[in-house]
UniProtKB/TrEMBL annotation:
This is Bifunctional ligase/repressor BirA. NCBIfam families: birA_ligase. The keyword Transcription applies. It catalyses: biotin + L-lysyl-[protein] + ATP = N(6)-biotinyl-L-lysyl-[protein] + AMP + diphosphate + H(+). The lineage of its organism: Bacteria, Bacillati, Bacillota, Bacilli, Bacillales. Residues 35-54 bind DNA.
Amino acid sequence: MSGNPCWRRQERFGTNVKEQILRLFKEANGQFVSGEALSEALGCSRTAIWKHISELRAQGYQFEAVRRSGYRLLATPDIPYAEQVKAGLNTQRLGCETHFFETVESTQTEIHALARAGAPEGTVVIADEQVKGKGRLGRSWHSPPGSGIWMSVLLRPKLELQRCPQLTLVAAVAIVETIREQTGLPLMIKWPNDLLLNGKKVCGILTELRAESDCVDYIALGIGINVSSASFPSELADIATSLSIEQQGQAPLRTPLIKRLLEKLEELYFLYVEQGFSAIKPRWEAHALMLGKPITARRVNSATLQGIAIGIDEQGALLLRMEDGRTEHIYSADIDMG
Ligand code: BTX
């Protein structure tokens, strides 16, 4: 795939006024911007500008204010605003259209709405907080403000329906490789959609699709990563962890992590589209947690099975060697070790 990375293309102003203000400061490159220039560029009163700057300060942005000169941006906190994520992003499609929300029910709900309205492949929705974050099978995903990457990516692959679960595995490889590269933490993949550190869940992937007859219309790929969470509610305390907990309080910054993840995800997605799942499978297996181990697979509306996990097939289904020597193909299940 070739062409200009999307950050080099002409970009529209974001819809969020604070993002527009930040963009003007970025363009000013550390110089003062007057309140008058800001209010003219954004078409709002100087009082409104002052209010937005106060809100940005409350979020951790540091401004110097000098009479008759205006404002100068001194320091930026780690909030993955769309403009911040797109700046310097080296992708052809993923993230070219990015939407940031401070609070949202679920980034999946937003990406579905954008997809139905015709948004292009690669559109990304990021939230600082989700109040109804979704897991699989109607479960919830704990997504408090400022502590994680809560993100959905819109894909429109030309794929047969039965191959779509492979995209969860492609995403898992992209996340593991990115986090290992950025932090050195040895994430492992627990089939099909969990990423674990020291046996606890640090990341979940939710792949939802809309199809008409046998054709995929779009895929909403939801990614949740616990980045700087210092603790979890009691019901999650024994099963969840964060990058920060695993690094003695050192959390990587979310914005560069999101950028690198989008770049890696695009690289692997293009590889998958061009060469098929066989190009991804060995990379998945290199990080798989339970290969060769005894496991229990709890399936919805089917019997629970016990056996040895021996690999995945070309569809991405888990292969389970049963006691009688047969091999079962598991397409959807919750897995427990042992
Ligand atoms: P899952 O069904 O495999 O996992 C959900 C289960 O994981 C919950 O029932 C709970 O036990 C546990 N859990 C909940 N929150 C957390 C957490 N923060 N860390 C660790 N364990 C947790 C996994 O589904 C798929 C999750 C995808 C989340 C992303 S976030 C962006 C996008 N938007 C959205 O609403 N969902 C996705």
